[in-house]
Sequence to fold (270 residues):
Amino acid sequence: MPTLGYGVFLVSPDECERCVTDALSVGYRLIDTAQAYQNEEGVGNAWRKSGIKREDLFLVTKVWISNAGEEKAARSIDESLRKLQTDYIDLLLIHQAYGDVFGSWRAMERAYRDGKVRAIGVSNFQAGRFFDFAHYVDVKPMVNQLQCNAMIQQTGIEPTHAEFGTRMMAWGPLGGQGVDGIVKSETLATIGAKYGKNAAQVALRWLTQRGIVAIPKSSHKERMAQNFAIFDFTLTDDDMAQIATLNQHDTGTISFGDPQFVKYLIENYG
Fold:
């Protein structure tokens, strides 16, 4: 799995094919989408037209809560395969920790064993929920995708991930969703000046050096290229320690355990 990918959250279906085409031309090979984004077809069209071999790509999608449960999830996996124009998905995640997640997981385990999916994991499972879930399933989650960046560092969940051999993937690696200031951070800019890099590049490099997969999103090709140019420098231990002081919300700005949030998701999207 590449340590840097391109995310298409909030990229409209009409724009998705163009954005993914640009990202692939820049050099990205991991593309992160989801059933709920309604743009899997754009991802499929883009990679099919790119001329890039399927084995050189890493496609990620997620089962939405309206497709929770063994039968629904199984049907949705086949639908995602159709939209992505592929006979296998590299990484399939449960998008939210609600609904019949154990039923969904059974369908995902079967798809994994059948070769329709190469790896399975979860998304937005905070520490307690993640431990409970991982403890009871046969195939342990290989990835947990969480809100993670220089101001939401998710250090508290790392021992739990390590116990199950789970890798973290960071959504919102440059902010958004209640997090501002990363790309304008004086600390990150000062560190970046030593390497001829900007604050965003430092923030992404900090994640990848922690072993966390980052999936920044941009609709501008020039910015995609800037975000991708992070592997020609290495942050020092002192740099990493300075960035650690920026942490503001270790577990994220969204309270996934808030009953009102859960009610909102289920009533509107379940």
